[in-house]
């Protein structure tokens, strides 16, 4: 049923300019005698514009410029994403296991559908179809509600597993080279390893093994775990020798010592040898689709929380934009109920529609970058 | 404001009297008529009061820190810890307040708001409500900075470098929020100006009939719109780092502090051009008007503004030569940095060529324009020195850098701002300032500025590091000299303020066009009416001044429509 209208839209090469031109030739005063024409000025025409066309195009240009600022603002986050993902690929491969592809995909569909209804609302406004306009705006608003609802379910799951950002909440938060919340960390590792291993392709045996290691991980003697990891590593090498790719850690040695200063002199020796091990990490990329906790070097383990910071910053800022968009659309609904919009005046619907599409577009980038890493 | 609400007989001397004698200042009365105004001119005035207040505050910090530097420690007279802390606070707040609250908004928000729609013959900017919102953002940002002052200050330097900024106990969070909100004020102004220049040009004014001040504002606005959001996200990240300890910039948590520097300078280097480009636009107007010659190389000046804006986005790495960038990155950033000198030099040469064989009048605005050319040339060329890799390593974080950017940000930007304020003062308030006093103040500022900062080049090249509360005895002469110079500069600025207040209270009534310039703001009364123009002005080449005849009785110029028509037919040049 929607497809018919879309096709119409395509054939009807953008009705907007035509409407506007009609309007300006009908009622707008000529520029050179602008000040004489006050009587037949349309009610929505602000005093400093000469014609509705000029006002409409200004509004639209203004919104495009605003969207440019939005892109630059999100651009900073995308840039941070690229840098951290480039420097710590395994951290991202590991952390994204906590995200739920199905919820992400559903939200993508919800948001795309709401973009459709938004575009439809703009068209309804241009054609003066009041009831359709309100229906489409309400549908768009509900799309926002659905999106934020699903986001809330997802955030709840992160909260339950201590994956919220910040030192108070994140299970992966390290302090002086040691996990700050060993118990929370154990649960988080169990959760993510379980999910990662469950996705298939993991080379490291059964879920049970993963669980075992995650139990060991937060124990005070980090060296033990690392030795365990080394052992697993050797096992992995033996299992799939052809698939092993040797990658050098990007962190310079000084950086590593910074990251994981020995907790006590007694631990120093153990830790140093662990770092030597971490210096050249043998990462099973090819042939294995998932990374488990034991695959991460000591350095990388201290950085897993960064994945969640970036996830929450990006989706959080995006969610804030969805909420703002919902507020604007709510305002449009009120205005539309008062029959404010029609063929002569639909600028707010049009520019808020542009904003909504951009919010949609940003999600289109966020979804694969965060949920579909592998 | 009550002082200037006296209904002046604005424009009595010209052929375009305002019926009823009302102008934008006395058009409506009461505090609310100002606080809720959508009139770009009133918003410009409100910006003027607030930005000048910030200027006074930041200037006071500068005087305090220079005074502290007058003496250095010795075994008998060691510098106290609290003294060092106070010094750190003073140089941080001096930088932060003056950068975010004076240099960036001064020209666009005050003079741009006031003059841009007038130059277009328009009634207002494209989005008057956003314009008012931008002022409120400025005020809210300012309140955050006031809060910082009262709640433990700030000692990070205006750059908020991590990891120090996330570990200090001073009010970094409040300052960050303040800068964030101020950024929105800047974005809204830029967005408004771009839309206005695109959409509200009058019939007959194509892009190449725009006054050059508007080209400069357009280029500035591009940077404001495209760079400021990156600062916004950087500051949000810094805030998250500070409040939640997310660790994204903290090496102890796996983050990268150099990323903060990249983000910060991706905004803050283009921001340098937010400061200087509109200043250059003012200079183009002043040089042409006071040489009574058509501007030379119009399109070169116009395009050089755009070129500076675009190149400005590609040079941020020259702030980080010593931060561990790759040698290749350093070399590329160095090369692009050198290339910024080309469009800058194009402007200088075109201004000089405009003055050549001109009939130069050394009115106060022109004196500031000439000072600009001097100071900007020094500031710009030392920028080229600093852009070269080898010299940069030697001069990095020394007073050489301090002197360089003060020559650009204060010596150039501030003199252009003052020149512009004097130039448009009669238009804004309908009152003339006292010319001899203004010239004395100009001399004090020009002399005081050079006394303060030129010697810092020498101190820096001899190794005096910046940001230090104390120094070795061999630098004592430089510091004492510089401090004395700063007092002279401050005296000049106070004299400017007194002259302006005197002009408001007792100034001679200003003619419609005291300078004989032909840009459209001079085609309306002084001060302009609420609607800007009683009758729509006719657009002509902004730099052909032949249609204005000097009238001795009013000490101003009167438009001669007949001559204007002849000139239009001739096609001039």
What's the CATH architecture name of chain B? Up-down Bundle
What is the beta-strand fraction of chain A? under 5%
Cα-based radius of gyration of chain A, to the nearest Å: 28 Å
Number of domains of chain A: 2
- Strand arrangement within the widest β-sheet of chain B reads 1-2
Order of helices and strands of chain A: HHHHHHEEHHHEHHEHHH
Could you explain the architecture of this structure?
- Chain A is 68% helix and 3% strand.
- With 374 residues, chain A is mostly helical.
- Chain A has 14 helices and four strands.
- Chain A has helices spanning 2-11, 16-27, 52-87, 89-95, 101-127, 130-160, 182-198, 207-216, 222-239, 253-259, 265-279, 298-301, 304-337, 347-371, and strands at 174-175, 178-179, 245-248, 280-283.
- Chain A folds into two domains: 53-162 and 307-371, Four Helix Bundle (Hemerythrin (Met), subunit A), CATH 1.20.120.80; 174-301, no CATH class.
- In chain A, the strands form two sheets. Chain A has a two-stranded antiparallel sheet with strand order 1-2. Chain A has a two-stranded antiparallel sheet with strand order 3-4.
- Chain A is elongated, with a radius of gyration of 28 Å.
- Residues 1-37 and 201-287 of chain A have low confidence and may be disordered.
- In chain A, a hairpin with a 2-residue loop joins strand 1 (174-175) and strand 2 (178-179).
- Chain B is mainly α.
- Chain B has one domain: Up-down Bundle (Cytochrome C Oxidase, Chain A), CATH 1.20.210.10.
- Helices cover 65% and strands 1% of the residues of chain B.
- Chain B has 16 helices and two strands.
- Chain B has a two-stranded antiparallel ribbon.
- In chain B, strand 1 (548-551) and strand 2 form a beta hairpin.
- In chain B, helix 3 (81-119) crosses helix 13 and helix 11 packs parallel to helix 14.
- Residues 1-19 of chain B have low confidence and may be disordered.
- At the A-B interface, helix 3, helix 10 and helix 13 of A face helix 6 and helix 7 of B.
């Amino acid at each position: 049923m929607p497809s018919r209208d879309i096709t119409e839209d395509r054939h009807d090469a953008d009705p907007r300019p035509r409407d506007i031109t009609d309007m300006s030739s009908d009622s707008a005063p000529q520029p050179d005698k602008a000040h004489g024409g006050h009587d037949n000025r349309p009610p929505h025409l602000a005093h400093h514009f000469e014609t509705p066309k000029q006002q409409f195009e200004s509004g639209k240009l203004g919104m495009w410029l605003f969207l440019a600022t939005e892109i630059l603002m999100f651009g900073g986050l995308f840039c941070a994403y690229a840098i951290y993902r480039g420097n710590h690929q395994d951290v991202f491969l590991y952390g994204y296991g906590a995200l739920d592809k199905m919820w992400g995909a559903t939200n993508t569909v919800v948001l795309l559908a709401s973009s459709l209804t938004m575009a439809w609302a703009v068209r309804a406004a241009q054609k003066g179809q009041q009831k359709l306009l309100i229906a489409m705006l309400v549908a768009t608003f509900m799309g926002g509600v659905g999106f934020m609802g699903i986001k809330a379910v997802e955030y709840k799951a992160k909260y339950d597993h201590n994956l919220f950002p910040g030192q108070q909440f994140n299970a992966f938060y390290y302090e002086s080279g040691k996990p700050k919340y060993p118990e929370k960390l154990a649960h988080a590792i169990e959760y993510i390893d379980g999910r990662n291993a469950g996705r298939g392709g993991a080379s490291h045996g059964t879920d049970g093994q993963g669980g075992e290691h995650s139990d060991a991980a937060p124990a005070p003697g980090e060296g033990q775990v690392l030795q365990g990891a080394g052992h697993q590593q050797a096992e992995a090498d033996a299992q799939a020798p052809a698939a092993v790719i040797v990658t050098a850690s990007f962190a310079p040695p000084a950086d590593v010592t910074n990251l994981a200063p020995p907790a006590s002199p007694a631990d120093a020796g153990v830790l140093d040898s662990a770092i030597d091990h971490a210096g050249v990490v043998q990462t099973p990329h090819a042939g294995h689709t998932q990374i488990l906790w034991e695959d991460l070097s000591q350095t990388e383990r201290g950085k897993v929380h960064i994945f969640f910071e970036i996830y929450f910053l990006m989706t959080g800022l995006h969610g804030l934009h969805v909420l703002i968009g919902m507020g604007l659309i709510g305002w449009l609904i009120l205005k539309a109920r008062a029959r404010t919009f029609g063929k002569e005046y639909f600028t707010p619907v049009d520019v808020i529609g542009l904003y909504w599409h951009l919010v949609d577009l940003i999600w289109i980038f966020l979804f694969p970058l965060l949920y579909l890493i592998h | 404001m009550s002082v200037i609400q006296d209904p002046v007989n604005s424009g009595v001397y010209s052929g375009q009297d305002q019926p009823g004698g009302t102008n934008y200042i006395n058009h409506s009365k009461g505090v609310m008529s100002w606080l809720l105004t959508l009139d770009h001119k009133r918003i410009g005035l409100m910006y003027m009061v607030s930005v000048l207040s910030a200027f006074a505050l930041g200037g006071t910090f500068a005087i305090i820190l220079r005074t502290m530097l007058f003496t250095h420690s010795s075994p008998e007279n060691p510098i106290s810890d609290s003294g060092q802390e106070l010094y750190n606070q003073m140089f941080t707040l001096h930088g932060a307040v003056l950068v975010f609250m004076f240099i960036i908004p001064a020209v666009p928000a005050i003079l741009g708001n006031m003059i841009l729609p007038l130059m277009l013959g328009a009634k207002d900017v494209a989005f008057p409500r956003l314009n008012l919102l931008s002022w409120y953002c400025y005020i809210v940002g300012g309140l955050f900075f006031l809060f910082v002052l009262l709640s433990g200050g700030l000692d990070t330097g205006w750059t908020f470098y991590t990891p120090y900024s996330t570990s200090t106990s001073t009010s970094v969070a409040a300052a960050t929020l303040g800068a964030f909100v101020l950024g929105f004020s800047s974005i809204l102004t830029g967005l408004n100006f771009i839309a206005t220049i695109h959409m509200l040009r009058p019939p007959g004014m194509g892009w190449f009939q725009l006054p050059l001040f508007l080209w400069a504002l357009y280029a500035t606005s591009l940077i404001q719109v495209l760079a400021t959001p990156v600062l916004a996200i950087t500051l949000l990240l810094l805030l998250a780092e500070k409040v939640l300890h997310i660790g994204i910039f903290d090496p102890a948590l796996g983050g990268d502090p150099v990323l903060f520097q990249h983000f910060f300078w991706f905004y803050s280097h283009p921001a340098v051009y937010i400061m200087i480009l509109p200043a250059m636009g003012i200079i183009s107007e002043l040089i042409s008007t006071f040489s009574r010659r058509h501007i030379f190389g119009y399109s070169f000046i116009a395009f050089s503004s755009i070129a500076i804006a675009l190149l400005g986005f590609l040079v941020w790495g020259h702030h980080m030569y010593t931060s561990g960038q790759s040698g290749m990155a350093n070399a590329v950033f160095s090369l692009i940095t050198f290339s910024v000198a080309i469009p800058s030099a194009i402007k200088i040469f075109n201004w000089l060529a405009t003055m050549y064989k001109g009939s130069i009048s050394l009115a106060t605005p022109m004196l500031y324009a000439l000072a600009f050319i001097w100071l900007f040339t020094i500031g710009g060329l030392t920028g080229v020195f600093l852009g070269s890799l080898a010299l940069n390593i030697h001069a990095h974080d020394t007073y050489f850098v301090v002197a360089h950017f003060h020559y650009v940000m204060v010596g150039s930007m501030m003199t252009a701002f003052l020149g512009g304020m004097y130039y448009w003062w009669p238009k804004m308030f309908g009152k003339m300032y006292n010319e001899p006093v203004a010239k004395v103040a100009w001399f004090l500022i020009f002399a005081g500025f050079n006394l303060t900062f030129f010697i810092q080049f020498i101190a820096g090249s001899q190794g005096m590091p910046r940001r230090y509360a104390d120094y070795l005895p061999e630098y004592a002469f430089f510091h004492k000299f510089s401090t004395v110079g700063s007092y002279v500069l401050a005296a000049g600025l106070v004299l400017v303020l007194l002259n302006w207040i005197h002009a408001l209270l007792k100034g001679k009534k200003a003619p419609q066009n005291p300078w004989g310039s032909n840009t459209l703001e001079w085609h309306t009364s002084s001060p302009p009416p609420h609607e800007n123009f009683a009758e729509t002005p006719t657009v002509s080449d902004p730099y052909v001044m032949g249609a204005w005849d000097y009238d001795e009785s009013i000490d101003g110029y009167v438009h001669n429509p007949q001559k204007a028509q002849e000139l239009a037919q001739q096609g001039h040049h």
